[in-house]
Design brief:
The protein has 213 residues and is α/β, with parallel strands linked by helices. The protein contains 9 helices and 6 strands; from the N terminus they run βαααααβαβαβαββα. A 6-stranded parallel beta sheet has the order 3-2-1-4-5-6. α1 crosses α4. Bound molecules: 6-O-phosphono-beta-D-glucopyranose and magnesium ion. Belongs to the HAD-like hydrolase superfamily. CbbY/CbbZ/Gph/YieH family.
């Protein structure tokens, strides 16, 4: 029996996947690294440092740890400049309703985000109180696709992983959900989500009755 839903944030609830993408693309251009949508897709759901390492796979030169820190923080500055002005209108269409419908059905809700900006974003979007439990990159040590974050979310809800479903827009996230022992709902239309148990074009199509009846 499903008793809880664990939502990813960027690209599922918040319209921020495009903002992360644009910030990495700008950084890549500045340091002369080729960047296309296939790289962009691989970065989804991956934490900041892991994303930088993927980006630098195409670099003709090596970077020191200090340089990498500086690059990651430059990307974060670009990202933060954009979300400074974010508000509830930056929720993806149907996201608020999807989360509320889960609560109305008597199930618990959690958030599992790889972003260290998740607390700021939740506040800006005005949805912090829609979640019974929040886990973000500040609380875990192993990034998606490791199951740690979804396991922590289930534990925080007081549920077994098998009693939860996870909702994700990234391949790394689907892998993390499965490794945690949950069923995975994929949000989006990319072939990268082929492993999802159920694929929906957007979060507006999420209907909790699919899992409770
Ligand atoms: C994930 C995003 O939610 O958070 C990634 O899908 C992002 O694109 C990652 O890199 C880390 O975010 P932040 O805000 O900690 O740099
Ligand atoms: Mg995401």
């Amino acid at each position: 029996l499903i008793k809880g839903v664990v939502f990813d944030l960027d690209g599922v609830i918040a319209d921020t996947a495009v903002v992360h993408h644009a910030a990495w693309k700008r950084l890549a251009a500045e340091i002369g690294i080729a960047f296309d949508d296939s790289v962009g897709e691989r970065l989804k759901g991956v934490d900041r440092r892991g994303s930088l390492d993927i980006l630098l796979e195409r670099s003709p030169r090596a970077y020191s740890e200090d340089e990498k820190e500086a690059l990651a923080s430059r990307k974060n500055d670009y990202y933060r400049q954009q979300i400074e002005s974010f508000g509830p209108h930056n929720l993806l269409p149907g996201a608020h309703h999807a989360i509320e419908s889960v609560r109305r059905a008597g199930l618990k809700t959690a958030l599992a985000s790889a972003s260290r900006n998740a607390p700021l974003l939740l506040e800006r979007l005005g949805i912090a109180d829609l979640f019974d439990y929040v886990v973000d990159a500040n609380h875990i040590s192993r990034a998606k696709p490791d199951p740690e974050i979804f396991l922590a979310a289930a534990r925080g809800l007081g549920l077994e992983p098998s009693e939860c479903i996870g909702v994700e827009d990234a391949a790394a996230g689907i892998a993390s959900i499965h490794a945690a022992g949950m069923k995975a709902v994929g949000i989006g239309q990319t072939p990268a989500l082929a492993e999802a148990d159920l694929l929906l074009p957007n979060v507006a199509a999420f209907d909790i009755s699919l899992f409770t009846t």
